[in-house]
């Protein structure tokens, strides 16, 4: 019971001792200010943490996109690697069907030997890509020449009667601008070999 009586005496004591009441109020005020400062610090920390979390989240999204892009690039590189492999195989196959150098050089010698000696010039000989007809290979060829009309006809006849199988499928004859009455002629055809 004594405790209860002591508690009842506190308000009377505080009324009589105003200095203690002021000190108590000051302590409460300081306590509340400290609590407010503490709460503000906590809120700032939470905001900082939230901004850090958002930055980390953005970085993670960037890394996810980058990883996705890298995997796409990796797949593209794998496809390119396969294409390169296929192209290498195609190149090996194409090399196997190319005529041997000696065959081309002997063909050029034959063409040159069929050319008339005077008033006739073979300007250019172009070879195309080899075609394959059921095991027989055909080498497209184009010959550009200039000279007299009769000499040109003799050359075309000589090519047509060459030892090799030479099929002419196109002839173009135009007047020569440089040396009239000579003509400029283009002959296209195929040389066949097994």
Radius of gyration (CA) equals 50 Å
Query: What structural class do helix, strand and pairing data support?
Result: alpha+beta
How many β-strand stretches?
A: 5
Q: Which band does the percent of strand residues land in?
A: 15-25%
Largest sheet: 5 strands, antiparallel
Query: Helicity, in percent?
Result: 55-70%
> How does the overall form come out from the CA principal axes?
rod-shaped
Number of domains: 2
Average pLDDT for all residues: 78
| Stretches with pLDDT under 50, minimum 5 residues | none
Number of helices: 4
Straight-line distance between termini: 130 Å
Order of helices and strands: HHHEEEHEE
Kindly list the characteristics that best describe this protein.
194 residues; alpha+beta; Alpha-Beta Plaits; 2 domains; five-stranded antiparallel β-sheet; 4 helices; rod-shaped
